[in-house]
Design a protein that fits this description.
single chain; alpha+beta; Pnp Oxidase, Chain A; six-stranded antiparallel sheet
Length: 146
């Protein structure tokens, strides 16, 4: 199963459930907005997702300790709408982080801009992450075989 096959269920979704893991191994699920780059000349495929969060949240602490995450399409309340996909999270900076924010701004316009305006009064640092699904996903392989 390719990474493209794994990201297809997210194509028309607004939210994904991001499951990060505590040091004890217990998963914590959070519904988040996400954006994927469109396929094009500089981008072979959209096999990654950008998300953003406040820099000192629990999910950021968990990702710093363990970049392994799981993602699944979900609704705004976090009710999972598809299969879980194993992935890795990476904290971004510089141009790549700015690119992720632009993609999120485009997808969630005007709501994200409005939220950014009000959040600017709180002076909180935002952190952009890229989530890359793993092409070898044991759950997906097991589900396909049965």
């Amino acid at each position: 199963m390719t990474a493209t096959d794994l990201v297809q269920p997210f194509a028309r979704q607004k939210y994904l459930s991001l499951e990060t893991f505590r040091k004890t191994g217990v998963g914590v699920r959070t519904p988040v907005w996400f954006a994927a780059p469109s396929p094009g000349p500089g981008n072979v495929s959209n096999q990654s997702f950008y998300i953003y969060t406040i820099g000192n949240t629990g999910k950021m602490k968990r990702i710093r300790n363990n970049p392994r995450v799981r993602i699944a399409p979900c609704d705004m309340r976090g009710n999972v709408l598809g299969h879980w996909v194993e992935a890795r999270a990476e904290i971004l900076q510089g141009d790549e982080a700015a690119r992720g924010m632009r993609l999120l701004d485009q997808k969630y316009f005007p709501w994200k801009k409005l939220l950014d305006f009000f959040a600017s009064f709180r002076h909180r640092d935002r952190t952009v992450l890229v989530i890359r699904p793993s092409p070898t996903n044991p759950q997906q392989v097991a589900a396909r075989s049965s």
